[in-house]
Amino acid sequence: MVFHKKATRNEVYIVAKIIDGKAISAQIKEEVKQQVARLKAKGKEVTLAVIQVGNDPASSVYVGNKKKACEYVGIRSLSYELPEETTQEKLLSLIDELNGREDVDGILVQLPLPAWISEEGVLERISPSKDVDGFHPQNVGALCVGKPGLVPCTPAGIIELLKRSGIEIAGKECVVVGRSNIVGKPMALLLLGENGTVTIAHSRTKDLKRVTSRADILVVAVGKRKLITREYVKEGAVVIDVGIHRTSGSKKLCGDVDYESVEPVCSAITPVPGGVGPMTIAMLMHNCVESAGKGFN
Ligand code: NDP
């Protein structure tokens, strides 16, 4: 059973069974807005460069949402919309230019990229100090050895969801299902950094139910709709659902967790939509301020 920590005088927790990612992300964006204003007063305008190659409709929606969030918190966003046929050379030379600009604090390249461009090569070219997605191997390494660096937004957002919901991580059995570089692996490292006892499960894990059933905190990032049903979850567990799936023929979204069957047995759960999703952009804004704030505090 996971116990939720009571808020002390200076801590404001949103304690509820349904973890409200919309409310918590709004709280973070308000904090970021204040930090951006403080930096502006010191003469520093926080600036994010957003690069999109081609016009994939889903990417355009993500990029549009990121720009809207920037506008809301007062971050200046510079938009680079490159045609689909852009070469890797051209993209790398834009990144080099942005790396060298003192007025640019963060560089974000929207994924996926066209097949002829190496994502790895592009992400590694971004200066680690401007890598607001936290994907550069130097930032990944820093996370691994517990040094400061920019942390991938989705798992960082999940830690905020847990902390701001008053959920203790230290000493808890944490199971992360999924081992991608953008969610599963950094998630496991962050939970370990918070002193959780961490297990990572993946597609080759034998008897997944047995592994997930020991979790006090279960994070699911597999990309398989409603994979995790009631039988996978220990009574009283906290369940974090990272998955996003659109139900065909409808606008309704669902996650990797079968919400209807799991909600009655768990002690807290993130809904889809309105759980992990809104946290990713809020943490991106947070990372921009982190990156801009160096030397200004
Ligand atoms: P990936 O496809 O990169 O990784 C999926 C992981 O799940 C892999 O490690 C894979 O194992 C594992 N896996 C697949 N099937 C099973 C299974 N049956 N049992 C156990 N493990 C399994 O996905 P991402 O990490 O990028 O994303 C996961 C989900 O999260 C997606 O639905 C995505 O849309 C969503 N997402 C949501 C975000 C948000 O902001 N809310 C942000 C990022 C992602 P193996 O390594 O062995 O192949």
Return Rg in Å.
19 Å
Q: How many helices in DSSP terms?
A: 10
Biggest sheet architecture: 5 strands, parallel
Uncertain residue ranges? none
The sequence of SSEs as H and E is HEHEHEHHHEHEHEEEEHEH
Give the overall shape. Answer: globular
Judged by helices, strands and strand pairing, the structural class is alpha/beta
The order of strands across the largest sheet is 5-4-6-7-10
Number of strands: 10
N-to-C CA distance: 41 Å
CATH superfamily of the largest domain: NAD(P)-binding Rossmann-like Domain
CATH architecture of the largest domain: 3-Layer(aba) Sandwich
Structure in words:
The protein folds into two domains: 44-129, Rossmann fold (3-Layer(aba) Sandwich), CATH 3.40.50.10860; 152-276, 3-Layer(aba) Sandwich (Rossmann fold). The radius of gyration is 19 Å and the shape is globular. Helix 1 (21-41) runs parallel beside helix 10 and helix 6 (153-164) crosses helix 7. It has helices at 21-41, 57-73, 88-100, 119-125, 137-145, 153-164, 184-193, 208-212, 259-262, 277-293, and strands spanning 47-53, 76-82, 106-109, 173-177, 197-201, 217-220, 238-241, 245-246, 253-254, 268-269. Helix 7 (184-193) links the parallel strand 4 (173-177) and strand 5. The strands form three sheets. It has a five-stranded parallel beta sheet with strand order 5-4-6-7-10. Strands 2-1-3 form a three-stranded parallel beta sheet, with helices on both faces. It is α/β, with parallel strands linked by helices and 297 residues long. The longest helix is centred in the first third of the chain and has 21 residues, at 21-41. 39% of the residues lie in helices and 14% in strands. Bound molecules: NADPH dihydro-nicotinamide-adenine-dinucleotide phosphate (NDP). Residues 154, 177-180, 182-184, 201-205, 208, 221-224, 227, 242-244, 256, 276-277, 280 line the site of NADPH dihydro-nicotinamide-adenine-dinucleotide phosphate (NDP).
